[in-house]
Amino acid sequence: MIVCEGEKTERYYLDGLKREEAISKVFAITVVPGKGGSRSQIIKRAINKKNAQRREMDIVLCVLDTESLENTQAKEDLETARQEANHNDITLYLSNPAFEVWFLAHFRRTSQSFRDCDAVIVELDKEWSAAFGQPYNKSDDKGYQRLAGRTQDAVTNAKNVVEIDHREKTDIADRNSSTDFYQLVERLLSGAW
User: Fold this and answer.
1) 44-50 contacts: CB < 8 A, separation 24 or more?
2) Distance between CA atoms of 186 and 157, rounded to whole angstroms?
3) How many helices (H) and strands (E) does the chain have?
4) pLDDT tens-place string over residues 38-93
5) pTM score > 0.90 for this model?
6) DSSP secondary structure letter of residue 189
7) Cα 66 → chain centroid
8) Of 58, 63, 115, 152, which shows the fewest CB atoms inside 10 Å?
9) How many domains does the chain fold into?
């Protein structure tokens, strides 16, 4: 089960990804759309979904954004979310500051710091519009299909941002911009968990 922060963007992408033959032959994935909220609220929702399942889930994951970590309260909330996830055996895949960093990695490698999701979208829209002849839309249910041919580029770009550009920063909260989502994609595509 993969619990998303967002209602549409992450869900649409994951719904497309899970249909890839290499993934669907190995994994039965349930994608749970989110409703937003603080990091700790999202983890509580994931815990509730996990506990409400009639059958036990082998793996429970949560995909969420760090959002802005400019104040102490936001940093504390992220730390609380991490602790709760760890305590409840939920693996987090974070994007700093937003999931759209993963989409941007499909076009180019960048560790450029972004103020928030809107700032990432400004950069993403340049690439998206040039490639697809239309502006980026968070509610695009064809996002995965549009990006699928660039997945390996995205994995390579995102990995290089983490391992090269931000190699001295072990915490994603300090790596604006970056995403751990590539690790999930690699694992699913490899069929190994």
Assistant:
1) 44/84, 45/3, 46/3, 46/85, 46/88, 46/90, 47/84, 47/88, 47/90, 49/1, 49/3, 50/1, 50/88, 50/90
2) 13
3) 9, 5
4) 899 999 999 999 998 877 778 999 999 998 777 778 889 999 999 999 999 999 99
5) yes
6) H
7) 10
8) 58
9) 1
